[in-house]
Amino acid sequence: MLQFPDDPTAVARADEYMWGKSLLVAPVAEKGASTRAVYLPHGAWHDFWTGERIEGGREISRAVDLGTIPLYARAGSILPLGPVKQHVAEKSGEPLSITVYPGADASFLLYEDDGTSFHYRTGEWMGIHVNWNDSRHMLTLRLADGSRMLPPARRDIEVKVAPNGTMHRLTFAGETVEAKL
To answer: What total of structural domains would you count in the chain?
Structure first.
């Protein structure tokens, strides 16, 4: 309802919700269900699990099982998906993983601080603006105004363009990075 207030069908759906601006979640609440009716608001959507691009503004039927909840990414979304951590203090040697869902321009602020203190108030935080230009298939990374690089001095980032794009490895060290994907 908050993301699509002018779409009466979306507003009336009490069994689906948006997780932020990018993900539509359609939980399966019926015991033994093998399919789920999902209303996709206007615009293009990508099935999170299969990558299939689907035009919205209509109801679709989605096959379901115990391991797969219907989940749809809005075209023009950037999702940071990893590495998986159990808590903020856990260290990982894995690169940051980002998936871009094409179909519209997108932007995202990747925010990072120590996760345990109030030091961000004195400038101890880092923001990376991630921008996707859909017509140019260009991804731009730049340091957010007012932030600074936090240790480690560089970030390895794996970027995938849905649905089945190849993985691109980028390194961000504080200077603007542009990559045609």
So the answer is: 2
